[in-house]
Amino acid sequence: MDIINILPDSVANQIAAGEVVDRPAGAVKELLENAMDAGAKQIDLVVKDAGRTLLQVTDNGCGMSESDARLCFERHATSKIHRADDLFAIHTMGFRGEALASIAAIAQVELRTRLTGSDLGTQVCIEGSHIVSQQPVACPEGTTMAVKNLFYNVPARRNFLKRDSVELGHIEEVFRRITLIHYDIGFSFVSNGRTLYDLRPGSMLGRIAGLFGAAYKERMYAVDEDTDLVRIHGFVSRPEFGRKTRGEQYIFVNGRFIKHPSLSAAVERAYGDLLPDRTYPSYFIGLTVDPSRIDVNIHPTKTEVKFADDHALFAVLRSAVKRAIGQFSLATELGFDTPDEFNIGPAPQGYIPRQPHVSYNENYNPFHPTPTQTRLTLESLKPYDDRDSRAGRDLDDLDDQPTAAPQARPQQERDELKAPCILLQGRYIVTAISSGLALIDRHRAMERILYDRLSSRRQTADSQTLLFPVDCRFSAADAELLGEMLPELKQYGFEITPRDNTTFVATAIPSDLSTDDLQTLLDQMLVDSKGAAMQRFNDRSQSLCASLARQMASRHAAPTSQEEMQQTVADLFACPMADTTPSGKRIITIVKPEELLR
Question: N or C: which end of the chain has fewer CB within 10 A?
Fold first, then answer.
């Protein structure tokens, strides 16, 4: 009996939609790219309920004829590819011919288009790949594509969509990726009747400022390089404006946003030691390469590409960024203020030079080191041969290995928390307990301690009123998410109010926080709230508490005395869940006596 059959077009289109339109942002990307390929100089995006209810893109491009308006919804229908060789000389954005067919398979679509020079336009209505109506209509030149009730016939996929603030964030990221490099086109973005962006055509730096704030005009260095291999144009951030996250990093090839680890590494390595540890630059860089030297057709979303000259591109890009950083007045910005003691010139009459003074500890005896002077290496903590031993692994490999819920610790062990401590590598506290040698990650220990403290004093958190309120600016989607979080933030001592669509004013913060990096702290809390690690908490208040504790712990200074280390250990073991951080990462590793004997 024959069991193989050909799928109906409606089913095939729904399967294809899984690659093209996995969420509303995927549909937005395809519609915006089609509008640009139509030669539009103004494109307007309107969304309702983060795209669930409506996604609408209007452009003033060339429009379509009556027959093209119907044919564009067929699979593999495209005006951009005619033969296989065209795949290696692609200059357009969308070219596969699957986007509109996929969108029409999972939504109710209304197309209104008028060809340039025509008196009347065409309206086509489609539901789930089936054409409901087609008729002439009066409309402006160009095209309006309205996608309504996305995934209305695929409820399982609709149920997997995240909350509106998260989905709007994905749409906004797609909007940024497209508008950043196409700065010669005007764009607008309206969400639920509120204008988030209104971008006029102009320069790339002006577009960056329009998307991320006017302050970015003063934070950027221009990168400009032209070689036989590649043309590079864009901007990189000044070293002092490095960020704790990699969010504002964009590389484009021939007008298309791409993800390429090698090119990203080239930019970051150009900074050398100018950036502090775990700090990343912002960059917005466009590359123009011969299309025949790249392959953009290796991934459905076309964000991954292959270059024929990877290593050469890496070297050119790194050199271009390095030269830009060095070229723009680094020497003058560093200051090089010479202290008075080094001003060489004729000495005043009667001048007597100051005698040098050296401080030293008269009681120091190298043969009687204190516990904090004891040298301890990771190698000395490893068993001779025990692959299953937790102590035999590098400490940094223990990051994401949650442990079972700890048992209550005996009184004897709590009493022994006053044992001498050693600070290892500036991060790990090593101390003896009854069951062996305890290696404690002090960052994670502080995270657990602060989380328990914040949780216990929620609603009554100490707050300090700021003498000078601090302005913090966010992207439109992040601003909407932060607005939802304000009631929970107030519980922990924050007083933050919106000034406009993207700016918030902080008038009070928790008493143990500083205003120096308030923007960075809030940015990271927003990143955490959207991350998968925070989904394990029952409510947003707990998630915010965990994020705030992690940020505060990272800013906590290393202990400098025995008393401080012992207090940290005692505070940790007083926590009900001392073994793991709120997000489930291990804090303590025990090296048992028998492991030390081996």
Answer: N
